[in-house]
Fold this sequence. Notes:
alpha+beta
Amino acid sequence: MASRHRSRDPERWSTMCGRPRLITGGLLLLPVALLMADKLSGQGIRLAPLMVAAPALAAVFCSPAGVLAVTLVTVPCVVLTAKVNLVVGWANFYAQLGALLLISLGAVGASRIRERRENQLAHTRAVAEVTQRVLLKPLPPQLGDLSLASVYVAADEEASVGGDVFGVADLGGQVRILIGDAHGKGLAALETASYVVSAFRRAVRRRCSLCAMVTDLEEDFTDDLRASSVDRREDAGRYLALEEFVTAVILEVPDKCDGPMLMVNLGHPPPLLIDGGRVVPLEPTAPAPPLGLGDLGCDGPRADTVDFPPGATVLLYTDGVIEARNRAGDFYPLADRLPTWAQLPPQALIEAVHTDLRRHVGRRLGDDVALVAIHRANAD
Length: 380
């Protein structure tokens, strides 16, 4: 996944369910408390029927063994309450006791099913997280005079995967950095995103110029889409070529404190250059179509030369950041907020943006979010 992600394992999932041991203890005390209250209230108020709530609630929070333990405490409490109220032997008493046993039996079965589903969910989350980590390998914190940091948050937080991608390649003296956003979000975009990452890794190994690499990336990505779709249905290759695309920005940055960087923008939001208190959008002079739609462009990709002074930071992001809305419908003002954090190192910068974005939205994000910060050290 990203250089920063959240672990989701069975132990944490159990903790999120509300500290099962503490809840089991409380449910064990519930019928005892009702028994004492019934004794104190006299025969005017009968609290025994409320005791069936203990095993029913245990099915939601406790293990099957916990449900059984709650049942073993509840049954004698019901009997003692019936003795206090002088109803032992009445038909209602046996009906109440039979209902308690049936509810308890169902509660044990429900708890077993719930526990199995929770384990399956925890396993699925762990597999999804490993998949995302393989797809998006953590960026190295340092490459020459460049410091890098990243964060990735999927809109489908239950699966922890999505369609935003980033990658870096060290070519010895030059660093190439990719950020992309696949059409769609969540699991639906994951396959498309995987093709971009795979094509990027193949293309950079050829060590050609940046524009030639982007051309190769386009061809490899389109070929992978078509090859995958052929396995699914006839003529699907043509369908996917029209429907699936990925916006992207690719940078080529010298790993030393001198020289400009090259940028190719493929229909993606422009990177932001943070230099002192200034935030400058790096708009392309000749934007190219997104990956997968290269046949719509008349010319091949063109690289812009962009100044990247020492001490400055370039922030790459996906549209899930700038299109995030608060409850009033206002978009997140990324460029306006950045001057506040201009002096922060890359990791602290993206953490500040991520936290502020969450605060702005106030609820679950509606789209995948990826952030990559590249800082160039000051010249000695």
